[in-house]
Amino acid sequence: MLRLLSFIILLQFTTLYANAQIDIAGKPFPEKWQAVDSIIKNRPKGSKKVTELLNPLIEYSVSQNDEELELLLKITQLKHKLWERSITDAEFTTGIRLITIKAQNKGLKHIEAMAHHTYSVYWSESRNLAEAVKYGVKSYNLYHDYDPSYFIFKKYYTVELAKRYDAFEDVENSLKYRYEAMQIPPEDGYSSDIFNVLGLIHTQLGNYDSALYYFNKLHDIARDNGVVVWQIISRGNSVDVYIKQKQYDTALKIVMQLVPLSEKHTGAGVQANLLSTVASIQMKLGHLQIAESYYEQALDRYRQAGVHWYYENLYPAMSIYRSAMRVKAENGKYKAAYGYADTVVLLTDSINKKYNVSQLKAVEKELGETKLDNANQLLAIEKKNALLQRNLLISVVVIGTIIILFISFWYNKRKERLETTKNKAQYDLQASQDKLASFTNSIQEKNKLLVNLEEKLTTYETNEKTIDLADTISKLHETTILSDHDWVYFKAIFEKAHPGYLISLKEKYPDLTQAEIRYIVLAKLDMSTKEMATILGVNSSSIRSTKSRILKKLALQSDEELKNLINTI
Fold it and tell me: Is 125 within the bounds of a domain?
């Protein structure tokens, strides 16, 4: 009974607390957010979840017709539902898109920027890095012109966008957005992160002076704000820079100051890393006995974390064991060195197997959840779009029919024009080819007749028959020889039957003479040497001489090469 009474009192107090804090409608945007943030952070212990606590505030914003406050609260609620894992991917995606559309329609660019950033966070946690960057940039394009005193998330969002590019190892954009964030007031925890990452990036790029500048800037901020952890981090990173510059004495002096400080303010892992750094420097300075001592201390610190400490500190542990192994060997302690070598091998095999298996299971689980969420998302979207699709169906059908009819009419007309043009071109080509074939056949038939007549001429005995036949042969020769006018007509027919052939021939071989061009054209028609001689009114030796000049001019070795060239032009 007492428990029930206590619960009722707590419930009433929570409701009163929420209602007492919601008199923020109509206030400037920064005040609205500060009030909402205060309600969330200062809610009584054991009260409702944030997502439930925000419901009466959302109802209040609707009753006050404050759409900016309503959308702000809904984004905050969606974000907390995502963190509480009390919402499906489909519900989250639908919710954030509806908020985005409403913000666009109302001209609330800052709310739209918040929605895009929240979507970027969702994609980042889903490990879809490309989408995370995409929506991070969309958010940036909306908020980057706002004054940070109004859009109080400006610095935080810009740092987060830089982190999105870190995932792609895009140093250029990472630096760009961190430099920009560095100029946005105030100097707070985000500034510490900015200076630290800028220092690390410049260290990686070999810009050591710039790296030390940012680490020193970080140390000053941490010291002024009394944040010891950041002081240790900044000085530790500076030590790494000095080591890269081979300034071992300076590095050793700084890290020796950090060791006792870390014992008061950090865990065993940080202490072990610092002790390992001391050992590494001592080893570089040739102080092997001292280096061995510090490696042992570093391993002792790690072991304080538990038997399986190396699962969470795999790479540092492997580095320490390898370095300790080398030091032991240098100091002549071969048995201990062999022991560390065995440990390195065993850790490499066993830890990698366990790590890979766990990673594989995690990936399989993630894939299964993603498939299920995608299926649920598609189903939910289909249900919500069903009503809209039904209402729009008639309009779409009518408009679509009109468009299809128009396209069909236009396509048919165009097809008719193309067919007409194509048919005419084919007809012209066929007609030209027929004319050329007819001309060629005529020449070949006349040539055969000439050969027969010339053979008969040798068989006649009487002078009278010989004279008549010779006269006939002479007249037949005259009908087969092409005049200049005939050649122009013949070329026109040939060009139509073989479009572009003569142009291509002249472009490729501009040094060819007219006689050589005539030879190539007639050879293209498969005319023999005798037929060419007949049609050109010259003897066969002249034709062979022309062919020899062509072979020499075109650097060809055989008749077969010339034939292939003529047929491939």
Answer: no
